[in-house]
Amino acid sequence: MSLAASDTPLLELHGVGRRYDTGGGTVHALRGVDLSILPGEMLAIMGASGSGKSTLMNLLGCLDVPSEGHYQVAGRDVAAFDADELAALRRERFGFIFQRYHLLAHQQAVANVEMPAIYAGLDGPRRRSRAQALLQRLGLGERMEHRPNEMSGGQQQRVSIARALMNGGEIILADEPTGALDSASGREMMAVLKELHARGHTVILVTHDAQVAAHAPRVVELSDGRIVGDTGWPTDQPRTAFAAPEPPATGAMAALRRRMAQLTDGLAMALDSLRGHRLRSALSMLGISIGITAVVSIVALSDAARAVVDAKLRGFLSGRIMVFPGHHGLPTGVEPQLFKLRDVEALRAIPGVRNVAENLERDHTARHGNRSAQMTVRGVTRGDLDAEGLQLVEGRWLGALDAEQRASHVLMVPKSRDRFFPAGTKAVGQTIFIGPLPFTIVGIVTRGGGSIDTNDSWRDMLYVPTTTYTDKLSGRSEMQQLSIYLAEGADGAQVQAQARQVLKVLHGQEDFNFFSLDAEFRKIEQTTLVLKLVLSAIAGISLLVGGVGVMNIMLVAVSERTPEIGIRMAVGARRSDVQIQFLIEAVVLCAAGGLVGVAISWLAATAANAAQNQLHIVVAWAALGVAFGVSSAIGIVFGFMPARQASRLSPVQALARE
Questions:
Q1: Rounded distance between C-alpha atoms, residue 573 and residue 519, angstroms
Q2: Coil, helix or strand for 542?
Q3: Which 8-state DSSP code applies to residue 385?
Q4: Are 102 and 570 contacting, i.e. CB atoms less than 8 angstroms apart?
Q5: What is the pLDDT of residue 658?
Q6: CA-CA distance, 51 to 65, in Å (whole number)?
Q7: Which of 475, 547, 569, 613 is packed most tightly, with the most Cβ within 10 A?
Q8: Can you list the domains of the chain with their CATH numbers?
Q9: Exposure of 398 by Cβ count < 10 A (0-12 exposed, 13-18 middle, 19+ buried)?
Q10: Which pLDDT score is estimated for 476?
Q11: Strands 202-207 and 42-46
Q12: Is the pTM of this model over 0.85?
């Protein structure tokens, strides 16, 4: 047995007016409307076109707000409600049945019906189960997975009824429910509405058709924005109490489920939009892809170039301070002292000094057979060889025994070897003359990755033991140049300052000069870093252009999908729901473009490495991740304004847009 509905008004309007300011003046759509609707009533609001009936329906359904007067829903005045509170009222109490159905064309019937429950926070399984049950009840069990364009007008209208009932639909607002239907479908529609009324729903029909209005026990007539007739509710007509469905859960978990559903729905909408506008989406993605490709490629190329420069210069410049005789402050006629062994030993004792190379070198004529060439001969210790980053190619190193015996042994670089020996000829063990003295070649050395040129193409070099050099080639032990090699992490400026004090004490005056190759190397590093940043910034301009393109596309999308936004707001979407959905679309668009750009960058780097071996281009995973994150951030930044514009639309204005 059904319970009788309460006699407390469910909807009340007192002196409600609605006016619109237009370019031609003010239009009064409603004037001083007083109306009270009890729970469980079924009434028809009837009037000719322009009478204000649609405006009244929009006010009753909280799609619009009065310009004056008071409107109460279940005793609550909606005048002070903000946009989200009005959305909550629509979501919790109202169900809309539109003349043009207002279904989302890209979604199946069951997804259209589920939509209000998404914004109510109902979990997925219960949401899907309720939607399927409603469609079964309305005779659409076999059409659940059909899209609107695959159904007849009557079937689409039944889907809109199921959607109106999804969250309960205590109050059903039907705008010209039979206007777009044939006579048979129209009769079926009215039968469904009467059935809903019998179940306790408050049904409000808005129509200009007297035959449709005759189905309602109560008829309210409008003319020129005023109520000119109201039959009232018949005293002998029962009103059944509404049995509200089980409300969705509340609390943190419900809010989390709603957010997850919101993200899922937004992602599905974004993918549908991309598929529906393939060319436009591809062009938008192209801008982002070009920007990401440019930035990632320039960063990778810059890093590769810096790595080459670093490899070429680090061993020769980094951690090295040169010391030369002479100083601009010396009095005229005073000769600077050359460096002695005691200077070397004193400098080696300074904290932060890894080694001090004695830099004994001089150009000599070297001969083998009938070939001769000018070459730089340097006296070295094994520590000097290590400090210079030399690597043994063949043969052996010069060792302590060579220095002790003052042996006539020599190391050559590949360039010097090639001057004397044809390709394929073994040089180690052969004899060459340095000046008049014979020397045996004991090894071939080359500069490693930390040198200016790994092939030593910049200089012909011969290395002999320091003792051999001073006894047999120079005849003196003084040194014209020293190289201080810094220990790892040592402060070059501090070491140089201490070296200056040590040498001033030993020489009695400052008759020497420093040239910090380490400081020059740091300057080169800073210069290449600045160049990398400048090039990256230039490449970033293309990202900015791509972002503007995405914003433009999203603004167009908002304009195109204004009716969809109105539908979502009518079924209870908050402003934040709409904003997040459009932001998701912008992020998906940019992220997809970013992925394409990342893929292009990786493929280009792979191809470049295969085509040449001078630069090893590495596109690091971290760089790819940052690029993807940046493209997604661009979607958020440039999608914000269109998304905000979408969320600020008035539901009634959005629904009116075709």
A1: 63
A2: helix
A3: H
A4: yes
A5: 54
A6: 18
A7: 569
A8: 11-247 (3.40.50.300), 260-309+523-656 (no CATH), 320-518 (no CATH)
A9: buried
A10: 65
A11: parallel
A12: no
Tally Cβ neighbours within 10 Å of residue 330: 15
Strands, E assignment, 283-352 = 320-325
Q: What is the pLDDT of residue 623?
A: 66
Token look-up 């009467």 returns 194
Cα–Cα dist 486/92, whole Å = 76
Confidence (pLDDT) at 35: 95
Residue pointed to by tokens 């079926």: 188
Average pLDDT, the chain: 84
The strand pair at 512-516 and 320-325 is best described as: antiparallel
- At residue 275, the 3 state secondary structure works out as helix
Asked if 317 and 517 touch (Cβ cutoff 8 Å), the reply is yes
335: helix, strand or coil:
coil
* E-state strands within 448-508: 461-465, 482-486
CA-CA-CA-CA torsion sign (176, 180, 181, 182): positive
Torsion of CA 581, 583, 584, 586, to 10 degrees: 130
Q: Give the Cα separation of 637 and 630 in Å (integer).
A: 10
As given in the structure block, the two tokens for residue 443 are: 């090894």
Write the DSSP string, 582-631. Answer: HHHHHHHHHHHHHHHHHHHHHHHHHHHHHH-SS------HHHHHHHHHHH
Closest of 142, 65, 85 to residue 108, by C-alpha: 142
Burial status of residue 119 (CB atoms within 10 A of its CB: 0-12, 13-18, 19 or more): buried
- Report how far residue 257's alpha carbon sits from residue 234's, in angstroms, rounded to the nearest whole number: 45
For residue 637, give both structure tokens: 């930044």
Residues 6+ apart with CB under 8 A from 472: 406, 408, 437
Name the amino acid, one letter, at 540: G
pLDDT of residue 317: 64
**Which regions of the chain are under pLDDT 50?**
1, 450-457
pLDDT at 456: 45
